[in-house]
Amino acid sequence: MPYPVLITVHLFAAVTFIGVVFFEVLFLESIRKKLPADIMGLLQQQISARARKIMPWVIALLFMSGLGMAHQHIPHFKGLFDSSFGMLLSLKMLLAFSVLSHFITAMYLSSNGKMNCSRFKGIHLSVFCHQVVIIFLAKNMFYIQW
After folding, report:
1. pTM of this prediction?
2. What is the C-alpha end-to-end distance of the chain, expressed in Å?
């Protein structure tokens, strides 16, 4: 697949995934304190049900496009840790796979009825923090030198 297509798919999938997590962490958590627990439970249940339908596809597109972009740069991976760019890219990829493991864990817990409020908040806060660092690295790894 052409690189411009891969990067466009990757960007749209990232915006979608990050947008959902930002919404859940920044908006949903503040709403939680103002709504009765039963209503908040129903809201969280419906958001989770919708996310279970959409987010696997978004994550699949995000990682497939990312791996497709990486595949086109395989010759550049030799000596990856010899530059600050390579080290920051490696960190970004490590964080992305950590986010993937969080997502798989959340899907497992949700599908088995083991997702509770504290796990939901903890996973989402962790993914949110990962995403902040990933965004910072994505936008700055071309400029940070040491």
Report:
1. 0.85
2. 34
- Please give the structure tokens belonging to residue 54: 């959409």
pLDDT value for 63: 96
pLDDT at 9 over 90: yes
Instruction: Tell me how long the chain is.
Output: 146
Separation CA 131–CA 18 (nearest Å): 7
| Residues sharing a CB contact under 8 Å with residue 103, sequence separation 6 or more, in sequence order | 55, 59, 127
SS3 string, 84-136, reads HHHHHHHHHHHHHHHHHHHHHHHHHHHHCCCCCHHHHHHHHHHHHHHHHHHHH
Model pLDDT, residue 95: 97
What's the CA gap between 4 and 9, in Å, rounded? 9
Domain ranges of the chain: 3-140
Q: What's the confidence (pLDDT) of residue 126?
A: 97
pLDDT at 18: 95
**How far is the C-alpha of 106 from the C-alpha of 104, rounded, in Å?**
5
Long-range contacts for 42-51 (Cβ within 8 Å, ≥24 apart)?
44/117, 44/120, 48/110, 48/115, 48/120, 51/20
